[in-house]
Amino acid sequence: MSSPLRKSKVGVAGLGIIGSRVAKNLARQGYGVWVWNRTPKPFPCFLGSPKDLAEHAETVLLFLKDGSALLEVLAAMTPALTPNHLVINHSTILPDHARQAAALVGKKGSAFLDAPFTGSRDAAEKNEMVYYLGGSEETIARARPLLECSAKEILCLGGVGDASLLKIATNMVTAATVAALGEALALTESAGISGENFSRAIAHNASNSATVQMKLPAMLAGDFAPRFSLQNMAKDIRMAKSLLEGAGIPPRMMEAFLQHAQTAEEAGRQEEDFSVLYRMVSEAAHGA
Q1: How far apart are CA 120 and CA 132, in angstroms?
Q2: pTM to 2 decimals?
Q3: What is the C-alpha separation between 42 and 255, in angstroms, rounded?
Q4: Where are the alpha helices (DSSP H) in 128-225?
Q5: Which of 48, 119, 155, 279 could bridge 123 with an S-S bond, Cβ 3.0-4.6 Å?
Q6: Which residues are registered as beta bridge partners of 111?
Q7: Which domains are seen in the chain, by residue range?
Q8: Which residues of the chain fall short of a pLDDT of 70?
Q9: CB-side exposure of 237: number of CA atoms within 13 Å?
Q10: pLDDT of 86-121, one tens digit each?
Q11: Structural contact between residues 58 and 84, judged by C-beta atoms closer than 8 angstroms
């Protein structure tokens, strides 16, 4: 069995909301961190290509937009991969894309871990991510010391692809919860009920959840700075819709969410937090 990772060199591809914070936190904890992003950013140890990243670090973390981006980056990285490399995918992707990525990496003898996460901007800031892992016991053992640097919980959930499907499934619930929360808040406001009283009522209701407690205060404050952007949630729900249809399950709730999301995206709000759907409902109710 390969020895556990020590505080050595790590590559991070994708410097979005989460990837940039994980990279900074790993550097603070003593890792030598090399980074790459499709759009150049003023980041320490920024490299020019995915291939350069693999040449500088034998462990590479991928925080990319979608499965197509993942496979494209891995194709560019492949010439530099060796049996010593460990590639950890943190992107939310279709299970088939995860399995394709594992096969691509496996041709070079490298290890691959399917490791999407739950936890938004604030969780990444505090090293409180929750990782869903799909892969072999040996690969998980290699990756665990590194993942523990940014995690509050690590869940082993099966093989490659299983973790990706579970991440999409949980995002389905999150998306539906926030969409319903926004409509409920808009309804109570239209009746002249204060947001404070709505908060007090739902805090004692069975529907209360960590998602509600995280999103409701920001919605009431009109704070839609992206913890998890609308365009990324819509991307995940489009994948959910595809998986549901493939399983013969009518995607009715996901279709409703996507209709709301499309309206917000057409209004130019795709970069805001996905809870901005509440603002769209509220403005419609007030004729804005």
Answers
A1: 14
A2: 0.92
A3: 39
A4: 137-147, 162-190, 195-203, 210-221
A5: 119
A6: 86
A7: 9-158 (3.40.50.720), 164-285 (1.10.1040.10)
A8: 1-7, 287-288
A9: 26
A10: 999 999 999 999 999 999 999 999 999 999 999 888
A11: yes
